[in-house]
């Protein structure tokens, strides 16, 4: 369970990272829209786990590795934005948020199930 402080700090990081990716994300991920879906912060506020989803990109693992390669640059830009609000700039860990893929996979399974012929109820 995250504390109010962690949630508030995660919200600040999510907002600022979204602006960074919107303005400068094209330099290292051209033609890709990056969305920060969720940010989780450790209780000591030292590590921020950032969950990303990529649109208009076929290879999400390559996109994630590209973001990880630029993590120090992204952290520096985040630090310049939030330096007056926090004591330490958290280390950033990036992960792919596969919630959309999971939902699509579940929808396909449910569609397949609904198209299968139903067995008649046997009342004995």
Structural summary, described in words:
This protein is of the alpha+beta class and 124 residues long. It contains 4 helices and 3 strands; from the N terminus they run H-E-E-H-H-E-H. Strand 1 and strand 2 form a beta hairpin. Helix 1 crosses helix 3. The N and C termini lie far apart (50 Å).
What is the total tally of β strands? 3
How many helices? Answer: 4
Beta-strand level of the residues, as a percent range?
15-25%
Helix content: 40-55%
Distance between the termini: 50 Å
| Rg for CA atoms | 20 Å
Q: How do the strands and helices of this protein lay out in sequence?
A:
Elements: H1 4-24, E1 33-41, E2 47-55, H2 60-69, H3 71-82, E3 91-96, H4 99-115
Which tags fit this structure?
single chain; 124 residues; 3-stranded mixed sheet; 19% strand; elongated
Please outline what is shown here:
It is built from four helices and three strands; from the N terminus they run αββααβα.
